[in-house]
Amino acid sequence: MGERAHYVIKEGGSWELYYSQRGGRSIELDLMPGPDYATRFARGQRPEDGWMNECECAAAALVDLGERRLLWYSHRIGDPAYRAAALAAMRRTWPDGWRLGWAYDGLREIAGAVGQDERGVRRWSGVPVPDGVRTPEQFMAAMPRIRLDPRTYPPGCELPRELPFGPPPVRPSVGEDPPTLITVVRDGVTRAHLTGAAASMVIENGAASLDAYRDWPPVTSWPVFPDEGVHLDADTRTAGVWTLRTLDRALDEAGGRWPGWRWAHWRDRYREHLARAAGAIALPEPDPAAGLRRLAREFERHRRADAGARSAASVRRAVGVLASAAEAADAAEAAAAAAA
Fold first, then answer.
1. Residue-range definition of the domain harbouring residue 320
2. What does the alpha-carbon distance between residue 233 and residue 250 come to, in Å, rounded to a whole number?
3. Residues 17 and 62 in one domain
4. Does a structural domain hold residue 241?
5. In this structure, what CATH number is given to the domain that contains residue 216?
6. Which of 269, 295, 271, 266 is nearest to 283 (CA)?
7. How far is C-alpha 190 from the chain's CA centre?
8. Rg of the chain taking only CA atoms, in angstroms
9. What's the rounded Cα separation, in Å, for the pair 18 and 62?
């Protein structure tokens, strides 16, 4: 995924696009101080005429000054406690009247919010067929590393201008951290599984993939909290999905991939999933106090590395908010320990 980021500043009927090679690493910290600092920071990055696609972009933010709206996401935040702390802190550091939203559909949602064709930022959907190439034989001669299935593309047929990718297969986790949680209900029994594939890929694999989970080993406990989850109830043909990252419009196409199924979008509400998992897997409870403390440390480290940020009044306000929140978390934790 990398660490690249886009920033969009919208004012009135116009907007400006900026790019950072490493901004995805710390976008939440650069947005934390509020709209004035976030706008100045974004305009200090490299102006761009063209967008990355969603595979390349680890994080992005739209600051709409006219509508007083912040829309953002990051693929670099997987810890639910840290993410919750960042969202809570930003609700205090951004002024009243601003709408703060997570772009659950990622870069497509941000591009669409400024009137751009979302297809222009969609991840690569296929292999373009070079000009002058018309048949499978010509294609494989021009691109010898790619073999075409003759059942799909018989010899001598005319190829389309793009050969579409199928969705990547979903496989059991081999230690990816954090994983995606999949729970499957079949004949009243709930089994939990883990995969390194994104939740959007689970959806894109469609209902035909459901039988594959029968052969997966169930997972009854895991030491790391997942950052995405999909619940599939084969008995009622209902499903739900949540994410701390993005779904990239996968739910828009779920009806065609899961005919007859009803899907719920739980946004970041992972407890909706766990309530339906019926205790099939034991996971560690996210620690809000630890999330606040980590956010305070990360913000202070980030601030020290940026001479411009150290002098900004909005940054100093953010430091005060985080310091008081971390102190309150420490005090609550100490009180709970004393009462135990």
1. 288-339
2. 18
3. yes
4. yes
5. 3.30.420
6. 271
7. 26
8. 23
9. 10
